Amino acid sequence: MPKMKTNKAAARRFKITATGKILRKQAGKRHINEWMAPKVKRNLRGWAAVAPELKKSLLELFPYRKYLR
After folding, report:
1. For domain 8-58, which architecture applies?
2. How do residues 18-42 score in pLDDT, each as one tens digit?
3. Residue range 45-65: mean pLDDT, rounded
4. In the chain, what's the furthest Cα-to-Cα distance?
5. What are 51's strand-pairing partners?
6. CB within 8 Å of 1: residues ≥ 6 apart
7. pTM tops 0.90, yes or no
8. So where are the chain's domains?
9. Among 15, 10, 18, CA closest to 49
10. Which residues are paired to 42 by β-bridges?
11. Is 49:26 a contact under the CB 8 Å cutoff?
């Protein structure tokens, strides 16, 4: 039986935390930033939690995840 493969697109876009949460990057900071207030750009920095209704389908893309919650 061959090994199952992790979805590499998902592996690049999402992180799974030690408590089982799935994190994603904030959207809206790629281009056309000149007009944005610095406060808005700061708030788009970092990671945000994925919506709970998407969690089950996203976890299927990570067959060898360490945390199964």
Report:
1. Irregular (4.10)
2. 888 999 999 999 999 999 999 999 9
3. 93
4. 54
5. none
6. none
7. no
8. 8-58
9. 15
10. none
11. no
